[in-house]
Amino acid sequence: MTVVLEADGIVSGYGEVDILHGVSLLVDEGEIVSVIGPNGAGKSTLLKSVFGLLKLRKGKLLLDGVDATGLPPQKMVRKGVSYVPQSDNVFPSLTIFENLEMGAFIGGDNIKQRLAEVFDLFPALAERPHAKAGKLSGGQRQMLALARALMLQPRLLLLDEPTASLSPRMVGDILTKIRDINEKGVAILIVEQNAREALNLCHRGYVLVMGRNAMEDTGQNLLHSEEVGRLYLGG
Amino acid sequence: MISDFLNPSYLAGFLTLVLIYGVFAIGLNVHWGYTGIFNFGVAGFFAVGAYTSAIITKQPASGAYMTYIGGLHLPYVFGLLGAGLACAVLAFIIGIPTLRLREDYLAIASIGVAETLRRVFINEMWLVNGTRGIIGIPQPLHGLVDQADYKYVYLAIAAVILLVVYVAVERGIRSPWGRVLRAIREDEMTAAASGKNIFAFKMQAFMLGAFIMGIGGAMYASYVRAITPDTFVPMFGTFLIWVMLIVGGSGNNKGAILGALAVWLIWDRTGALVSNAQDPRIFYVRNLLIGVMVVAVLLLRPKGIWGEEKRVSVYAGKEPERAKAKDEAAEPLASVVSTAEEAGDGGAS
Amino acid sequence: MAQLVVIGLIMSSIIALGAIGLTLIYGILKFANFAHGDLMTVGAYIAFLTFTGGGHIGPLSFGYGMILAMLAAMLVVGAMSVLIDRLVYRPLRRRNAGLVILAMASLGMAIIVRSLVYLGWGPDQRFYSSGLQYAHQFPLGIALKPDQMFIGATALVSVVSVYLLLYRTKLGKAMRATADNMELAKVAGIDTERVVIATWAIGGSLAGLAGVLLGIQSHLMPEMGFIFILPLFAASILGGVGSPHGALVGALVVGISQEVSTEWISPAYKPAIAFILLFAILLVRPRGIFGVKV
Predict the structure, then answer these.
(1) Chain B: which residues have CB within 8 Å of chain C?
(2) Model confidence pLDDT, tens digit, residues A124-180
(3) What ipTM does the predicted assembly reach?
(4) Chain C environment of A134 (Cβ under 8 Å)
(5) Is the pLDDT of residue C55 over 80?
(6) Measured between beta carbons, which residues in chain A are less than 8 angstroms from residue C173?
């Protein structure tokens, strides 16, 4: 297997405060990797730093073994990385169709084919492509956000708490979709508050505490680890 | 260029206007510098203050070419206070819909108020005599000295008023009330989270600043003795004062006064320079200069020449942190001043 | 009354061109461009500078030279807007200056631009053409000059073009997406800097055109655009800041109200009408008719 993403000793934060104090992780091709940790561990900061929304203060970032440190988001998407923010992740005054078009903004000519693929994966979106995204329910929005990110045909998808504030039924649906996406060969780096679900879903997981790597193992091992269980899974 | 200032009478007039503009700049500083209220309608308060004071201090209107309401013939002090109150009430009315909204909505609304009021003053002859304006506005302590020497009396009066306004605002700003204002300016969310009624505090600051502008308007009316709606065009009544504040350094009353001096000096001298020009268009070089100053200061020296003093607490001046706190806000001129002040502390931080 | 409504429609069409540009810039850059009215003024004077008579098109008071002058005004003001953004607003944005600082900088630019117009052409009123025009009589006592019909038609064509641009082209959709959420637009790979340039170019050229139409409707003077700033803001806030079709509806409300109000009160208060509408909407529905949030 080849490594898609390698982050090495990332330091970043907001203003004068460092949130991450040297975080390292790997994502292999076709892998689902989850990052869990308590509130304020720096999970979302990690994704933003990887995607270039936050400047790295220290550390290195490699995509497919090539240095990608300090690349802005516009360059990251061209390298096949796509990112779904936790909230405000659709364009509310645009229609579903337009949102997807915007997802393919940098793409070439085969928009139609990609639209077909995405609608295939999310048939609910195909039902009313001209509905305004702002009028969708929380779950549908999350679907649209995922679909928008897929329009870029990414090799690596960064997901920031995709199940936050969704109903339990929607959580299951979204997780299934994420697995479907992964099965098409897209590597996924997901940060989750919902640690049990995330660990069940992923191949490997990292535990982040106070902006530092605390543990790393396969999802199942972490799930059954006593320490993780005690700290994050509620016993 | 300089020789005018050797004439004491000219100098007195010049300085009086600097002091009056200093009052306006402090009033605007209460709005913008301390609270972050974006008032682009200073001219409206200027006008309301000047007209209110005029109709309070003047005798009732008489003659064919004079119509205005009021004419109470009361002493100057009532003119000042009445002008302040009228502006505070105006601020209250504008504040109700706008102080809760995005800052720039207040800016738009206040420009609108200023322009609308100016049109009312122009078109409603019965109110304050329309475009003919009000002339012969009384001056305080007029009989005290010779007419030729009255300038110096009014200069002294203006100096006293500015001092009172300055001390009052400085005290208010250093009080717990002032700290809440600055907290609101820095971060409304946090201030709200700590249980402060943001709207009430903003409204108080808006009314206080307007009150001070009203006083400035009253001072101006009695200085020039004749006012017309044309006095209160936005260029002269609003932007000049904004430039004074941001050039001097918003958030600092000394800076506001310094800015009033610096900008009025430029305005006055360029005025003298272009006054003999053949082509009337040259006159607008001054306006251009004001615009360029706004943009240049925002781009090159966002904190103004003086900048805001960081006040840890009223008593912090005696502690070593002060040197450090000042350096953080450092702008060259400010740090020259503070270095001189604190040379004895010897790098305490 | 019908006559006033029709004249109001003509004024609305001019307001709309300015307000759509203003609201696009407001929507994408989140700041109130106080120089927008003065951009209109520049447009009017650029057309004055480049207008070379050229006979008459049918019953109009001007010839094909005016069409060229309009294009020149749009081009110059569009380019100027982009240039001002590069020189002034962009450096401020990079410094994370707040919307208030940007708005203040735009006020500074407004003064600069207006002063340059004063320096170039002086304070006197100017006219594109001097000839008198006979108005066409329509039912309901409506009388319209050919020039006024030209203004309405030109504005209509422009508004439709802007609509097609925003809803049918990739660039337009990217502009709307960026206005919705600039961060997400970047995330989606949209080149937001290019969107910003396009927005200034489009907003600026619409302002330039609006200025020329205003000059045709009445006359040119250096304060013409600044006086227009209240109706522009009233229209865009009324419609909901950032919403182009809101600005259009807002422009209709403001333009028609201003004219119809002269039935009862002095025409000198026309800008005050815009202001009162603005004040009322801020009181009852600050996000405007079509706006989603403030």
Answers:
(1) 36, 38, 40, 96-98, 100-105, 107-109, 111-113, 115-116, 119-120, 122-123, 234-235, 239, 242, 246, 280-281, 283-285, 287-288, 290-295, 298-299, 302
(2) 999 999 999 999 998 899 999 999 999 988 999 999 999 888 888 889 889 999 999
(3) 0.89
(4) 292
(5) no
(6) 94, 98, 101-102
In Å, the largest CA–CA distance within chain C is 58
Angle formed by the axes of helices C224-239 and C244-261, to 10°?
120
Residue A203, pLDDT above cutoff 70? yes
Q: How many CB atoms lie within 10 A of CB A63?
A: 22
Is chain C touching chain A, with at least 3 CB–CB pairs below 8 Å?
Answer: yes
Most C CBs within 10 A among A47, A84, A94, A102, hence the mutation to make, goes to A102
Contact between chains at B119 and C268 (C-beta distance less than 8 A): yes
Q: Is B16 left (phi over 0), alpha (psi -120 to 50) or beta?
A: alpha
Cβ neighbours around B189 below 10 Å, total? 9
Burial environment of residue B87 by CB neighbours within 10 A (0 to 12, 13 to 18, 19 or more)? buried
Residues 53-82 of C with CB under 8 A from B: none
Q: What is the pLDDT of residue B316?
A: 37
Residue B195 — very low, low, confident or very high, per pLDDT cuts 50/70/90?
A: low
Please tell me the distance in Å from C58's CA to the nearest CA on chain B.
37
Nearest chain A residue (CA) to C242: A93
pLDDT, one tens digit per residue, over A58-91 is: 999 999 999 999 899 988 999 999 999 998 999 9
Q: Is-contact A31 A45, C-beta < 8 A?
A: no
- Of the listed ranges A3-12, B312-321, C104-113, the least confidently predicted one is B312-321
CA C274/CA B94 separation, integer angstroms: 16
